[in-house]
Design brief:
The chain has 279 residues and is an alpha/beta fold. Helix content is 38%, strand content 17%. It has 2 domains: 6-203, 2-enoyl-CoA Hydratase, Chain A, domain 1 (Alpha-Beta Complex); 205-278, Lyase 2-enoyl-coa Hydratase, Chain  A, domain 2, CATH 1.10.12.10. The chain has helices at residues 30-42, 92-97, 114-117, 137-140, 148-156, 158-167, 173-178, 188-203, 210-221, 228-243, 246-256; strands at 6-11, 14-19, 51-56, 60-62, 76-77, 83-84, 103-107, 110-112, 124-128, 132-134, 170-172, 184-186.
Length: 279
């Protein structure tokens, strides 16, 4: 996979995606937006990728939108001169939300604005103790973007979300950990190895089945359910469908034979024909 603003490498089932504009602190521009969406939409068909780590090149994770061209940075550009109306399909967070693979963010440096909101639909966030985070929208005269008004309160609670957004201040790793935004804090040199080690656990044979993709999407999708009945109704369908399939048979057989399972089904083509992954 060759991109202008991203580096990708695959090892032991883990795809590492590196935001690669280090001279611009990996500032988010139209090209990066399109390339990230292309990656996260395309990776669902890549069964060799079983987990993903996202990090940044150089000393920043992503310093937010590239505002070197003025307020046009907050719009989607067609030919470099004409702003277009933004559509839901232009949202990197929806592409991440709809991904079938577990995703670990390795926040190695500054993560501001879209630099942190893109991490919200990732499944786990690890952070360098040298990194800083900022939901700085109020200081830029901008609304919260990328669905962060939905994700952030669900991750950290309304009170903490309001404080971080209303103050629009930068804060460090210890506050992010205390507030529940990140899973763990690491020395800069230990961050990426820790993120990859965690992703490798997800990529192990016990996590490479259709079940892993189903369960990731079930948890994210049911965050918005109004009643547990919605979740029970859907998971009963999923249990019935998966129980009749080859992966469940292999899971039980491998348990009794005391060996790792070797699941035959593939998320690229064997997902249940119903549920949020079909939309």
């Amino acid at each position: 996979m060759t991109y202008e603003t991203l580096l990708t490498s695959l090892e032991d089932g883990v795809m590492t995606v590196t935001l690669n504009r280090p001279d611009k602190l990996n500032a988010f521009n139209t090209v990066m937006s399109k390339e990230l969406i292309d990656f996260f939409q395309g990776v669902n068909a890549m069964d060799e990728v079983r987990a993903i780590v996202v990090t940044g090149a150089g000393r920043a994770f992503c310093a937010g939108a590239d505002i070197s061209g003025g307020s046009g940075a907050f719009q989607v550009w067609n030919d470099g001169s004409k702003p277009q109306k933004r559509e839901a399909r232009d949202s990197i967070t929806l592409a991440i939300f709809n991904c079938l693979k577990p995703i670990v963010a390795a926040i190695n440096g500054a993560a501001v604005g879209v630099g942190i909101t893109m991490c919200l639909p990732m499944d786990l966030r690890l952070m360098s103790n040298a990194a800083r985070i900022g939901f700085v929208f109020n200081k830029r005269g901008m609304a919260m973007e990328a669905g962060s008004c939905w994700f952030l309160p669900r991750l950290v609670g309304m009170q903490q979300a309001q404080e971080w957004v209303m103050t629009a201040e930068l804060f460090g790793a210890e506050e992010a950990l205390k507030g529940g935004l990140v899973r763990s804090v690491h020395a800069p040199e230990d961050l990426l190895p820790a993120a990859r080690a965690l992703a490798k656990k997800f990529a192990a044979s016990t996590s490479s089945s259709v079940a892993a993709a189903v369960n990731r999407r079930l948890m994210w999708s049911m965050l918005g359910a109004q009643d547990p009945l919605d979740a029970v109704t859907l998971d009963l369908q999923c249990v019935g469908y998966l129980a009749a399939g080859a992966d469940a048979q292999e899971g039980i057989k491998s348990f009794f034979e005391k060996r790792p399972p070797n699941f035959p089904l593939k998320p690229s083509k064997d997902m249940p024909p119903f549920g949020p992954w079909t939309k």
